[in-house]
Amino acid sequence: MNGELISHESTSKWMSKWTNSIPQPDGTIDLLHEHRKAVANVAASVRSFHDRGEKFRIYHGSTNSTRKSAMGRDANTVVDTSQLNKVLLVHADEDTPYALVQPNVPMDRLVEETLKYNLIPPVVMEFPGITVGGGYAGTSGESSSFKHGFFDQTLDQIEIVLANGDVVTCSEDEHRDLFRGAAGAVGTLGVTTLVRLRLRKACKYVETTYHPVKGGMDEAMAKLKLFTNRPDEVDYLDGIMFSKTRGAIITGRLTDNPTPGIPVQRFSAPGDPWFYLHVQDKIGNHSESASEAVPLPEYLFRYDRGGFWVGAAAFDYFKPLPFNSFTCWFLDDFLHTRMLYNALHSSGQSERLIVQDLALPYATAKDFVDFTDSRFNIYPLWLCPLKQSVLPTMHPHLNEKESDGTTLKPMLNVGLWGLAPPEHKAFLEANRELEAKLLELGGMKWLYAQTYYTEEEFWSQFDKSSYDALRDKYHASSLATVYEKVHVKHGKGGSDEELDKTWTQLLFDMWPVSGLYGLTKSIESREYMKARDATWKHWVPR
């Protein structure tokens, strides 16, 4: 249906399904009416591809994936959903607060909107530019995921355009198989156009405590398990290993009244420290825990500046540029995640980095870190305990249950982010060794990143029959499969041999040409203004 043919009367009926017929503020009906018109146009575009029997890619307007996006592709092969970028409604009912959110709303804009009502999502991705739709279609586990699970577990309902152009609503009560099956399936079962997201009460601060680790992964995992079993006391939980033996487990507790006497710490201003460096300084050689009061949004986006620690790789690339507090202050605009991702994609340097999140059973996580220590020597490592999703799922999973016979055991995510071998052949070998070790230890990748598995290896980790049945049932055969979207082909005829490069490609790869090009394109994007203009920084005044 053409968007212009949708009536306000039909929108009113549609609205009751999403708002439980609860009266809404003035103007809501108009916003939802415009949404329905936009979705109808997306559906018409999708239907045209289906009728021609052609596959398409989805353009969202931005990406926080290290895989190549639809940017720059032939417009005739892309469905553009970038206009679906609004928070349509925040329902602030004390018992069942929720928001209706379009898929291309990034985390910082979502948080800014919900904080107006003193509410926040239960799971907030730590990079401000990650979108709601990306969180659902991808895998997004954060420091609250030990309690709430992956981001999609906080959604009650979605609207999705099927590959034949039909628009359906999914929830636990309606099309449940698609509701859960599309989570983590990287857009291969349809185009998400709206979500209903649960909210929770916000507090002014996260009382953040840094617990030193001196005894390696055994001690780190013991502390993670200890705090995982205290969900009433802890709201956020993650960890950083600075070496094989030394690190910190970090707990967070929402509060409006921090413990008297503890300092307030922020991480958003150019003169503030990068979070991981601050943690390293806080634990020092101490054996005692230390606490601070971090304003809630500052905590949620604490890893934005420096992109956890991947931003330090830019200084390594542009040597002899020093990496210190002055250069981080002076170059702050370029060191937020939106700018870093833009530069990585434009420069091609993302293909010379190991940027992988890897979920493992606790029983084999130490063996995996031993392997990465000897093979890559990449530090820091990020540790994040994960509550599993119900099987089958495209998220990392482990079919092992607790002693009650029903609860799936938690997994431990290891964030491995750092410089890879510079030569193409060595780069491929390193990634293949990493994947082989994961398979050996029962671990799985998050699918936002590049994947080098063979197709047989890849599907051995998932319930392919269930996935294929969903694709058949919901007319998704015209869409790329998950494997087709995440697998990297590097050479002629789809082989993994290095491509023969033209002289212009060889020139582009010469230092510092590609890096300067990426920096230029990043500046042209003006993404730095989104960090400068962020209002969440002022939610708790300095």
Quick overview:
It contains 20 helices and 17 strands.
Q: What would you say this structure looks like, in words?
A:
With 542 residues, the chain is α+β, with helices and mostly antiparallel strands. Helices cover 35% and strands 18% of the residues. Strand 3 and strand 4 form a beta hairpin. The longest helix has 25 residues, at 28-52. The radius of gyration is 23 Å and the shape is globular. The protein starts with 7 loop residues before the first helix and ends in a 10-residue tail after the last helix.
Strand order of the largest sheet: 13-10-12-11-15-16-14-17
Mean model confidence by pLDDT:
91
- Return residue spans where pLDDT drops below 50 for at least 5 consecutive residues: none
Tell me the distance between the termini: 50 Å
Count all strands and give the number: 17
The number of helices is: 20
Please tell me what the overall shape is: globular
- β-strand percent reads 15-25%
Structural class of the secondary structure composition? alpha+beta
User: What does the main sheet amount to?
Assistant: 8 strands, antiparallel
How do the strands and helices of this protein lay out in sequence?
Layout: H1 8-19, H2 28-52, E1 57-59, E2 78-80, E3 87-91, E4 98-101, H3 107-115, E5 119-120, H4 132-137, H5 145-148, E6 155-161, E7 167-171, H6 176-181, E8 191-198, E9 200-201, E10 205-213, H7 216-228, E11 236-241, E12 247-255, H8 275-283, E13 290-295, H9 296-300, H10 312-317, H11 325-330, H12 337-347, E14 353-361, H13 362-375, E15 381-386, E16 411-419, H14 424-441, E17 444-445, H15 455-459, H16 464-473, H17 482-486, H18 503-509, H19 513-525, H20 528-532
Parallel strand pairs: 1-2
Antiparallel strand pairs: 3-4, 4-8, 5-9, 6-7, 6-8, 10-12, 10-13, 11-12, 11-15, 14-16, 14-17, 15-16
